Amino acid sequence: MAEPEHKPLEEFAPSAEWAAPREWFVPDVAWTVEDGLIDRHADLPTWNAAVARDDAIVTQIDDGATQLTASNVRRTPNRSSSCSAPSLVFDFLRLLEPYPGDRVLEVGTGTGWTAALLSAYLGAQQVTSIEVDEQIAAQAEEHLDRAGFAPGLLVGDGRCVKWMRCDACNGTGKQP
């Protein structure tokens, strides 16, 4: 039986971004270094520009215990969830080098964008993502549902997947 054709990620990346646009995974209110607080409803052009840039977007601080506001972000070093910069995401995925049929475990679901990109590339049934924060996991599930992707989603600290067989692991979560 012939092996499935492997399409290099470089060739796939543009269609993956089309299949899972980053803006579908960034919350209405977030924070960037360049713009500070961005709010989709208050200033759509700034929010769109921030989402289109190759920058990380902070989506949660203090593990959700502190509201995401411009002054609170400056007061806390604990930026506990973000939507990573696109170049970093695609660099990680290139290093991961998944092949058709590979099962991929993602540790640190965050906004769900990377899980969506992997799902678009491999098929959602090949992707399992785990997030330690229940609130972030619920938001990621909403984003993924809206985008039409249904990878396996788990809430936990990573130890709960020791039984899982996977061919590659992408980790962007923080260590406790």
TrEMBL record:
Superkingdom classification of source: Bacteria
Gene3D superfamilies, per database record: Vaccinia Virus protein VP39 (3.40.50.150)
Chief localization: cytoplasm
EC number: 2.1.1.77
Keywords: Cytoplasm, Methyltransferase, S-adenosyl-L-methionine, Transferase
Location relative to the cell: Cytoplasm
Protein name according to UniProt: Protein-L-isoaspartate O-methyltransferase
SUPFAM superfamilies recorded: S-adenosyl-L-methionine-dependent methyltransferases
Protein family according to the UniProt entry: Belongs to the methyltransferase superfamily. L-isoaspartyl/D-aspartyl protein methyltransferase family.
Keyword Methyltransferase attached: yes
Pfam (any one): PCMT
Keyword Ribonucleoprotein listed: no
